[in-house]
Amino acid sequence: MSENSLRALLDHVRDYAGVQQKNDIQQLAAILRDAVPPEYPNGDDCAAIATADGYQLLAIEGFINRFVEADPWFAGWCGIMVNVSDIAAMGGWPLAVVNALWARQGPYAEKIMQGMVAASQAYQIPIVGGHTNMRSQQEQLSVAILGRAQQLLSSFAAQPGQKIVMAVDLRGAYREPFLNWNAATSAPPERLRGDLALLPEIARTGLASAAKDISQAGILGTLAMLLESSRVGADIQLEKIPRPQNVAWEEWLCSFPSFGFLLAVNAEKCGELLECFASRDIAAAVIGDVTAERHLWVSSAMERGLFWDLQTQGFVGL
Fold first, then answer.
1. In terms of domains, do 67 and 202 share one?
2. In 103-183, at which residue ranges do the beta strands (DSSP E only) sit?
3. Do 96 and 169 have their domain in common?
4. Cis omega (within 30 of 0) on the bond before 177?
5. What's the confidence (pLDDT) of residue 111?
6. Same-domain check for residues 188 and 266
7. pLDDT beyond 70 at 143
8. From CA 13, how far away is CA 143, in angstroms rounded?
9. Per-residue pLDDT tens for 192-242?
10. Among 93, 206, 258, 282, which residue has the least CB neighbours within 10 Å?
11. In this structure, what DSSP letter does residue 316 have?
C-alpha cells in the first residue's frame, strides 16, 4: 500500500460516522466528570462495582434510529448481543437485561421484540423488565444488562510493552445496508455461548489484562478508546489484522463484528491466548504493540501513518 493510499484509508476511517459519534461524547465529558467517583471511571465497556466476591457489571446500549427502522428484527437481536459482548469484554458472565422500546403503531415493535426474544433464547439471557411506548413518532431501542465477574479485563489495564491481539469470528457476512458483520444469527446457540465463555476464562487465567469489544467505532476507533483509557499508544501492522476474504480495508476497518475483541497481552502469553481462540475456530492474531508514546500508528509495508494523536486530541474525552 502506498503512502497516499494509507493516508487516504486512515482519513476515510476517521471520517466514518461511528468514529465521529464517539468523538461527540467529548461535548459532555467535562460535565459528566463531576458525577463520576474515582473508583468508577468511565471508559470501560461496563461499570464494574466491587462486591465481596467479585464485581457487579452494568452496561447499556442505545441504537441509531435509522438502523432500528431499517432492520427492526436484527436491531432487537443486537440489543442482546452487543450487551453480552460488553459483559464478556470485562471478563464477565451476563445475568439479565431490561429494555426501553419506542415505536409507532404497526409491525415495528413486534419485529424488534421478536429479535430480542430470539437472541435471549440463543444466549440464554432473560429479559426481566423494561419500558414500552407504542405511540412514538419513530423507532428507538435501548437495552441495559447486568452481569458478574470475578477477575476483570479492563480498558484501563494496557501497559507499554504488551502486544495487541485481535480476535474475530469471520464465519459470517455483512447484513446490508450497514457494515454489521453478522456471524451470530445463523450460528448454533451453543457455539455462541461457548465462544463468549472464552473471555471470563481468559480473565481467570490471566492470559490478558485489558480488553474491549469492537464496536460501532470499528477496529481502530475501538482501539483508540482502549488506549485513551490506559493513557498509552500503539503501533499496528495493518496486514496482520484478521480480515474476511474479498472485503476491502475501507469496509473492514469500519465494520461492527458480532464477535470481535481487542486485547492487551504480555508477549510470553500470546501463544496460549491465540490457541484459545483457534480451538474454537475464531481468527486471532497479534496485530501490534502497546507503546508509552500516546499515539496510534498504523503501518503497511514500508509506510506508517498516524491515526490518532491521543497526547493532544481526546477521542471520547472520558
1. no
2. 127-133, 140-149, 163-168, 173-174, 180-182
3. no
4. yes
5. 95
6. yes
7. yes
8. 27
9. 999 999 999 999 999 999 999 999 899 999 999 999 999 999 999 999 999
10. 206
11. S
Q: How far is C-alpha 203 from the geometric centre of its chain's CA atoms?
A: 17
The domain of 199 spans 3-30+154-309
CATH number for 50: 3.30.1330.10
Calpha distance 140→69 (Å, rounded): 8
Burial of 50 (0-12, 13-18, 19+ CB in 10 A): exposed
40 band by pLDDT with thresholds 50, 70 and 90: low
> Would the pTM of this model clear 0.90, i.e. be above it?
yes
Q: Which residues of 64-89 are buried (b: 16+ CB within 10 A; e: fewer)?
A: beebbeebbbbbbbbbbbbbbbbbbb
Which triple of cell numbers denotes residue 253?
Answer: 476497518
Cell numbers that stand for 188 in this block: 448454533
Residue type for 281, please? D
pLDDT of residue 2: 54
pLDDT at 1: 60
Q: What is the mean pLDDT of residues 43-69?
A: 93
Which residues have a Cβ under 8 Å from the Cβ of 206 and sit 6 or more positions away? 151, 269
pLDDT at 24: 72
Q: Quote the cell numbers at residue 98.
A: 431490561
Residue 71 lies in a domain: yes
